[in-house]
């Protein structure tokens, strides 16, 4: 597979989107540092040296499989991180340790004009491996801060796990999410565009929606989930 390693880039996601039109096979863009990285819903993503920042592009990805792909990638990253720390999933696809974010996943897709059943899938993953401090407004942690020592995270292992979990059936992936759901049976504040609601989170259903005591929530409608 084509792997491009960059010292510094605005965003591996932007870089991947630009070159993807020229390529026909899956590829991986890894950067040591990003200056304009983004998270879900256009938020910025802090990415100094010390993290694992990459975009993995799957070509000819079945469009119908995009819906649960974020959740499956979260399960893959969780699997790798649980070898080191007691990581959990905060729906929809944040990885947290003691409610502090340690990894984030951004899924973007571009459906082919000549075949709407297939898409380029841009899997953006940020893992705080050896980040030593965060800006005061970022509630995050890193493997280094949790373990107080440097650990090596193998990108090959992360990619192998992503491929493995993208191929598992939806039920199995969702079962794992529920097993490690950080907000299960907890009161959370759900925030959308112009609303917020305090609810008890129950579980994630097989369509990837959050079932709470106050209703069912779709991933795209919830901008933020805060634990109390
Ligand atoms: C989120 O939690 O909102 C998702 C964060 C995703 C960050 C990664 S880092 C590599 C890739 N490039 C980006 O600009 N974003 C993703």
From TrEMBL:
InterPro entries, per database record: Biotin_CoA_COase_ligase, BPL_LPL_catalytic
Catalytic activity, EC: 6.3.4.9
GO molecular function ontology, one term from the record: biotin--[biotin carboxyl-carrier protein] ligase activity
Keywords, comma-separated and alphabetical: Ligase
BPL/LPL catalytic domain: residues covered: 1-170
PROSITE patterns: BPL_LPL_CATALYTIC
Pfam families xrefs: BPL_LplA_LipB
The protein, known as: Biotin--protein ligase
